[in-house]
Structures are given as structure tokens and as C-alpha cells.
Amino acid sequence: MITGTFYYIPLVLLLLHLLGTVVPRDPLECGRRKVATNELLVNAANSSPGEWPWHAAIYHRTSVTTDSYACGGSLISDQFVLTAAHCVIDSASRNQLGPNRIFIRLGIFDRADPNLRTMQQHSIGKIYKMADFSRNKDDIALLEMKTVAEFNDHVQPICVEAWAVGGYGTVVGWGLTENDELSVVLRKAQMPVISTLSCLRSNRALFGQSLDVGMFCAGYRNGTSVCNGDSGGGMAFSRSGVWFLGGIVSFSQMRGAGDNRCQIDGYGVFTNVSSYLDWIRDTTGLQLRSATRGNLLPRECGINYSNENHRNGREANLLEFPWMAMIFKKEEANDPGKKPNRLGTLINSRYVMTSVWFWHNEDPQIVRLGEYSMKQSEDCTTTDEGKLCAPPTKDYDVERFIRHPSVAIVLLRTASEVQFEEHIQPICLPVTSALKRFQPKRFSVTAWGVQGEFDRLSAITLTDADIRRDCSEEDMICTSRPYCTELHGHPLSAMASYNGWRFVQFGMASYLPNCNTRVRDASNIFDTYINVSSHMEWIAAALEP
Q1: Which domains, and CATH codes, for the chain?
Q2: pTM (2 decimals)?
Q3: From CA 175, how far away is CA 183, in angstroms rounded?
């Protein structure tokens, strides 16, 4: 299929990644290796036998006596392999192949010289794909094998659940290498999930008319990406030694007219498996894991010691917004002259939520909690009862980040559990249906710098009249109040009924115009907030204990 001067091509991957430590498991479990492997961290490398025991090789029969390797796939049970829908289409006639034209090999590492002691070959009984499949929509298929796979050291299923795709995943396959040669041994590469905005900016002509809500982009632009030869392979994500299927290789850009090889410095597009869980469950009858893995967001949240409304802005009271977080580069955290890179909110004892489009993972990050005034070593205030001081601030190393694939939400997981105190508490999120539908009449914007001076935490009250209805959509909230702060990630929150009256975060600052621009033309300048309610399913699925 051609789009302008670009082509959709069957894919595979190029270069891939690792992990490994064997954990004994029950045969009914999924996503665990049975063969110990050495942990590497490279852009591209050969894998080792048994390292990816769920990866399947899909072959097309070209005649009674001949066949050819066509695609990759992922074993998700003893009878079903998940792959891309275009992998069951005849490339010449563009018609769906019959089940008798396809077979699967499991437990192989070297395609040219498979180990007959580990290999299993299975014929296909039925093929399932979505009715609306096209090359840029619903590129997913299930292959039901006639015979049951026997689980052993080299054949194991991968886990399937509502996975919050983000961060880094691993793709494996037998596709073109960096030398434009098909690999005979299974290769692996680790690559990041890319935001939809970044993907569109890289090639709007291709991705602008092909990216669907059931897809995401991943890869690098340095040669580590997906490529010709093995569409249908999975993008796997590891959590505590267990591997989960997040995506299926779908398509990438061709190098140009007349050259159907992939462009190695472009991103690849993956079918988002989480978007098709209901279809997978209904088709296979498998009991898939729940989307939220238990609610890890606390009910004791959003406790606020004041509910003052101030249209013109005010300094926050000490201990008033205890969920506010500052995020620094690690080497700058102790520099008193440095402002944080961005702001965020504490949402439970291990996660801070912030907003950023471009995240540099190589920069170690520090989360600071419990801050009030950056110019005071001790935060104190005078009350009718005398001097009141808050406990010292707490800094937490960031263990890893999880980035939403299409909007600028980033979850930061702290390296250790946050200890709640009176000046460090989580904010509530809109977890119930009633909260997601709730439309507050007043919002509170909380940040350092709201009143111009980046010193004390400040707050300003917005009314319904400050919401820009000409801008606001389901995924965003726009406000026109001409306050000034340029640090992304601060919350747009409101008092709501949840386990009593609590502060609930409904928005997170995503786009903030330059302060000088705001002063010159305040009537036409607005701030954009991500609508948190629209992304609660992803946030809940991303959290780990």
C-alpha cells in the first residue's frame, strides 16, 4: 500500500535486547523464562536459545513441498499465537490465506538449522482477525493451533493483560540486520516507546494518516528499529522478572520508491495489545489479568488544611498542598540557585505524576517533597498559637519513569517508599465514574511562581468562566487566567466528594506560554492542561506495588 511517496511494509525487527534470571514457576504461569541468561544492555545483539520462549516463527506454504518464513508471533496460551493481521494475507493476491497454508514453529533459535530437540511444529486450525482490518487499523490476528503446545524450557507463553505501554520494551525477530541481511538467529533490541506527537513530527506524511488509537510508536532514529522480514513479533515489557506483551510489530517507512526495505532511521508502529483485550478474551476464552491489578491509589488523599478562594492569587498556607513535588536533575538538586526542571504531584507512596513531552532518561532525577519556600532552610509561619514549622523536605531518587505513548504524562517511580507526614501527602485522582463526570465550578492552580516570584508555593482560584470552551476537548482543559508560571506538571485541582471532601487533581499543566507573551496579549493566551480523567485507565494500569 502506498501513501504519497511512502509505503507500508511488513516488518520485523532489527536489533534487540535481553534480561534474565530464572525464577521457578508453576506451569500455568506466564512470562517467565526457564533458561538462565546473562543480562546485557546493548542496542542490538543475538539472543540465546530459550531466552524468548514465547516467540513463534510463522511460515507460509507456497506449494505442497515448499514453504517460506513469513512473520513472527507470540505464544499466549497452549493453543493460541498472537500476530499481525497482515501476516495472514497473501502478498500477491491480497486475500486471506487459508489455515492449511500456514504453520507455526515454536522453540527455535536458528531458522536455518533448528534444534529438533526443542522445536515444535503446529498446523493451524482457525484464523481470527478483526472485521475492519486494514493496513493502518486493527492489525492483529489470532492463530488457533490444531495441536496443543507442550511447555518446556524453550516453549512458554507470554503474559497478556492491560499493560500501560511506556518506557522501554524489547523486540525480537529474524529480520534485516544493520547490514541489510536477514538474520538466521533470533536477534533482540531494547527500544523506547515514543509519544504520538514525536512520531508525527518525525514523518507527518506517513504517520499523520495512519496512526490509529490502537497503535503506538517505538524505536530510535539511529538504526535500532523494526524492519523487513518479521512483522507480527511482539514488543515485551518486563516487570519484576515477568514479561508482558505490549505491542505487535505492524509497519514502518520504506526507504523510497522502488526500494521496499525499511528506513532504518525511522520509528516503527506497533498494534497496542491492551486496546484489544476484550476481543482476545472473547475469541480465546482466556482469563486475562485485570486492568488495574488492584487499586494502588490511596483513599486517604487530597487532605487540605484550607479551602480559601483567591482570584488574584495568594501565597499558600504552610502544609496546605502537601502533594506538590519538585523534580530536579540529580546534580542540581542541592544548588540553591537552581529552579526545578518541572513540577509534579505525589499520587501514592511510590509515584509522582508530571508532564513532559521530551524526557531524557540518561539524566538521573530527584523528586523533592514537602517543600514550601525555596529561600528558607526551615519552613515556618506564625499563627495565633505561636510559631509553626514544617518538618524538613525529603529527596527521593527516581528509580525509573513510565511515559504515556500519546500524551505528555510521565509517572516517576521513586527508588524507595515515600513516608507520609503532615507536609507530604498524596492528592486524589478521579478514580470513580462520578469523579470522571464531575465538572467543578472552581479550580485551584498550585505552583511556585504563580505570582511572579519563584519563592513560596502559591495558589490561584479559577472559576468556570476561566475555562476556554473553544479550546477544551476530551483530552485537554484550557484556562485563560493570566497568571504566570512556566514550569510544567503543576496540578489543576478542585474540591470534590470522595471519601468526604477532598482535593482531586483533574488536570496537569502541559503547555504554558512564555510569561512575556502572556503579559503582551493575555486575552488570546491560554494554558493547556491534560485532562487526567481521560487517562485514568492507563495511569491505574501503570502503577506497580
Answers
A1: 9-284 (2.40.10.10), 314-542 (2.40.10.10)
A2: 0.59
A3: 6
